Amino acid sequence: MDEGAILSERVRRVGLFIGITFILSWLTVILFSALGGKWEAYSGLMTGVVFMFMPMISAVLVQRFVCREQLKGPLGISLKLNRWWLVAWLLPLLITFATIGISLLIPGISFSPDLSGYFERLKEEGVPLEQIEQIKAQITSFPIHIIWIIWIIQGLLAGITINAITGFGEELGWRGFLLRNLIDIGFWKSSAIIGLIWGIWHAPLILQGRLRYPQHPVEGVIMMIIFCLLLSPLFSYIRLKSKSVVAAAILHGSFNGTTGLSILAVKGGNDLIIGITGAAGFITLLLVDLLIFLLDSSIRERSIKDTVKIS
């Protein structure tokens, strides 16, 4: 095939993947809401989990029945361990600590390891006082430093187990199928396109008050897009350096398991300012992206795309 035909085929593949992913995902949210589903209930949680697996389902459908290709090799499904798997697992915790530090540089934000800021935010979000008191009672039954250690361990363990499984539901689509078909345009451009798609894809859940912006669901849609644009290079980088989409799934799982701590440790601000998905987190991720650019010459030379085999 000539270059024009190859480009046309990749555009077709990517377009089909995006279309199927968005239709399946957004229809899931629309149907659940139309049927009177309650997002705060267990059924709402499970609907969110189903939502996360739609990119994987779409990737499998397009890869097998449109591209008529294998899944394992082309989409980077590999269990061959290397040091980048450890980076994928532990880096989100370091980013969490950095985000807390940057949050404390913002006027009106203070360190709150006793969780007083967290309880104030629960009140602002309309959580019943009785429920807040129950949470307080559970937490204060242990020394606060023990609580923090438990949360960190739980987050890391979840990152390589249940969270990694749900993360794989997304990553097989984003960093498996999409990255494979876009990497030829360059690391940064492909990361930006994937990040934009990834961010927009979250919109229905954000508008329902789920995920990270319960106080600002409308503004949260834009914030999530910015967040995904900033986070996408790191995920692509881990996927390429580890040569496995499974490592990207662990990174995803560890992020979901640990970065919530960046909100619990501070007092003041709101969901647009604090936390990994707020302004403080954006600054942290900008610094991470800058480090990737400065410290890895293969990114600047765009030769890193050779680690992904494009047929």
Describe the model:
The chain has 311 residues and is mostly helical. The chain has one domain (79-307). Helices cover 71% and strands 1% of the residues. The chain has helices spanning 3-34, 42-66, 83-103, 116-124, 129-139, 144-159, 162-182, 187-201, 203-207, 217-242, 245-258, 261-264, 279-295, 297-301; strands at 110-111, 266-267. The protein has a two-stranded antiparallel sheet with strand order 1-2. It is globular, with a radius of gyration of 20 Å.
> What strand line-up does the widest sheet have?
1-2
Amino- and carboxy-terminal Cα gap:
11 Å
Q: Count of helical segments?
A: 14
Largest sheet: 2 strands, antiparallel
Proportion in β-strands:
under 5%
Radius of gyration: 20 Å
Count the E strands.
Answer: 2
Order of helices and strands: HHHEHHHHHHHHHEHH
Q: Return the domain count.
A: 1
Helix content: over 70%
Spans of at least 5 consecutive residues whose pLDDT stays below 50 are 307-311
Apparent shape: globular
Alpha-beta content class: mainly alpha
Please state the average pLDDT score.
91
